[in-house]
# Entry
Amino acid sequence: MSNIDCEIYISQLINFFESNPNDLIILIGDLQKKLFYQKLKEQCIKNSLNDGDHVITKSQIMEIIFELKIPELKKDELILRVQKSKWGDINLN
# Structure
């Protein structure tokens, strides 16, 4: 896969989230969407280089959200922190 495939894939993801802003808010909460999109692009390129498949898995998206969300949390909030989403509760511990 080439970077063109990644660009097309990420462009489609961004278009989906821009067309469905409520889904984006449910997924990432108050995170900055540009940073989220950048992390998605980085993961897509990494996937493409590692195994040739540029598609980002659901677990990889959740890892990106955790990576972006954890620094915002105070240390004592980490103990019982749960993010609500339409896919269910996500434990951020």
Observations:
- The two ends are 35 Å apart (CA to CA).
- The chain has one domain: 3-87.
